[in-house]
Write a structure and sequence with these properties.
- The longest helix has 12 residues.
- Strand 10 and strand 11 form a beta hairpin.
- The termini are far apart.
- Helix content is 19%, strand content 45%.
- Strands 1-2-3-4-5-9-8 form a 7-stranded antiparallel β-sheet.
């Protein structure tokens, strides 16, 4: 990966979206609830569009959601959420990893065979550790045209655990995301 792309992803990961107040609460993250409890509005391939109205919000917030569980260890999971911020100006990729993930190594991402980069975790909650990425058009296009996104977490420094996520239905679901 080119150093400029890594720096850009690091910058995007550290970027806090000021208008994302309702998005941070989306799907129970603020209250520590189970993200899978929001109502399923539609299905797009392997993605579900889940919607809820966060406490104190005037409007409903929706996200494309997919949950991954490692085949050999049910305690290793990821919840992937793609949403628009409450102001509609930014698109956010949020990944929730299990507690116990090695935080300094961050979260890696490959789409098909292309290494996209690494993102840092921004906080840990009782439900898991959260990595947020403000998605640019290039990343969105890669997700729309790709077949598999592999998210990589670490429990020990030298051994990454890759969890493959099918991108089937992402393009259609993203187009319908309010």
């Amino acid at each position: 990966m080119k150093p400029s792309r890594v720096a850009k992803i690091d910058r995007l990961m550290r970027h806090r979206v000021a208008a994302a107040g309702a998005a941070i609460i989306l799907l129970g993250l603020g209250a520590g609830a189970n993200p899978a409890q929001a109502a399923v509005r539609a299905k797009f391939g392997d993605w579900e569009m889940r919607c809820e109205t966060p406490t104190g919000a005037a409007t409903e917030q929706c996200a494309l959601v997919q949950r991954l569980i490692a085949e050999d260890n049910a305690e290793i999971f990821l919840v992937i959420q793609v949403l628009k911020t409450s102001d509609g100006k930014s698109r956010l990729l949020r990944v929730i990893a299990p507690l116990g993930v090695l935080l300094p190594n961050g979260l890696g991402l490959k789409i098909d065979q292309t290494d996209i980069g690494r993102a840092g975790f921004v906080k840990c909650l009782p439900s898991g550790c959260v990595a947020d990425v403000t998605m640019d058009d290039k990343l969105i296009d890669q997700l729309k045209s790709g077949k598999v996104a592999t998210f990589i977490i670490h429990q020990v420094p030298d051994e990454g655990i890759g969890l493959p996520l099918t991108l089937q239905g992402f393009k259609d679901g993203f187009a319908k995301l309010p």
